[in-house]
Design brief:
This protein has 299 residues and is α/β, with parallel strands linked by helices. It contains ten helices and 16 strands. Strands 3, 5, 6, 7, 8, 15 and 16 form a seven-stranded mixed sheet that branches.
Length: 299
């Protein structure tokens, strides 16, 4: 089968489409014919060697496709079902999944492939923060995929959400039920104007440097969680999440599918690329100005 791989660390130019053996479903696993594969920032970080690891290696951490193999002990899907979920080396013709959910009827393969990583990260962050209905949550730098999902998850459970983002994303975020303002200098003062009663918790996914202001807003570093500024977190006493010791919340995939069917969750796909243009998709992802998901189409 075809798969995207790289045999040396470096820029997008190291990515190649090569022939590799097909994977097969084991117990409690399924295999899918991949129709679409989401692109995530972790892809280029791994490709550039920031995470270490052996070579050669593939890429692609989330897929959507059609089930064609069902392993032992799997009872909730059959061959031919359309599903989405996290994958290892998912930028390929086939992928094996250990977690999955059925694709809502209103969603195409590209839209479904955009979901798994953002959904799990958003659900995990809200859970680790302990966000409760009636509270005020600040999401810093929340125009990307994780912030988009976290905003809608929180609004659905009765949380007041304030999101900092570039002005070009304000209209979209307001449509999800959030109040918005810009990030950067003076952030704390702008947020206080929107939340005179204070901020209960902060979910940080911004570019870095804002954690002291975010701690000031809550009055407690343990009420702030970051998925992006780990160096700053150590200095500010703020919690981080995303490491190998984090408990994953893949059960949120079914919840996301339900909200999509109810019209309460959407995650825009900014652009799709054929598998052969994976390097271009990676370049755009690495530039860091993506407001919707980038998705590879596998045919």
């Amino acid at each position: 089968m075809r798969a995207v791989q790289f045999s040396e660390f470096g820029g997008p130019e190291v990515l190649q489409i090569v022939e590799v053996p097909e994977p097969h479903a084991g117990p409690r696993e399924i295999r899918v014919v991949v129709n679409a594969c989401g692109v995530n920032p972790i892809d280029w970080k791994v490709r550039e060697g920031m995470m270490g690891g052996d070579l050669p290696r593939g890429m692609g951490n989330e897929v959507a496709g059609v089930v064609d193999e069902v392993g032992d002990e799997v009872t909730d899907v059959t061959a031919g079902d359309e599903v989405f979920g996290p994958a290892s080396n998912g930028a390929a013709d086939f992928a094996v999944l250990s977690h999955w959910a059925h694709i809502p009827a209103t969603l195409d393969f590209a839209g479904a492939a955009a979901l798994p990583i953002a959904v799990e990260t958003a659900a995990r962050g809200l859970a680790e923060l302990g966000v409760q209905p009636g509270e005020t949550l600040l999401i810093n730098g929340g125009a990307g995929a994780v912030g988009t999902v976290a905003t809608q998850f929180a609004v659905d459970r009765g949380v007041k959400v304030i999101v900092t983002a570039s002005e070009r994303n304000w209209e979209r975020l307001r449509a999800y039920g959030a109040e918005v303002t810009s990030y950067g200098d003076g952030l704390a003062e702008r947020v206080r104007e929107l939340a005179p009663g204070g901020v209960d918790r902060v979910f940080d996914m911004g570019p870095g440097g804002a954690l002291p202001q975010l701690v000031e807003l809550t009055g407690d570093p343990q009420r702030v969680l970051t998925i992006s500024d780990f160096a700053g977190a150590a200095q500010a006493g703020v919690k981080g999440t995303g490491g190998s010791d984090s408990v994953r919340h893949w059960d949120a995939l079914d919840h996301a599918a339900t909200l999509i069917e109810q019209g309460k969750l959407t995650l825009p796909v900014q652009q799709t690329f054929p598998l052969e243009q994976v390097a271009e998709a990676e370049r755009l992802s690495q530039e860091g100005h993506v407001s919707g998901k980038l998705v590879l189409l596998v045919d």
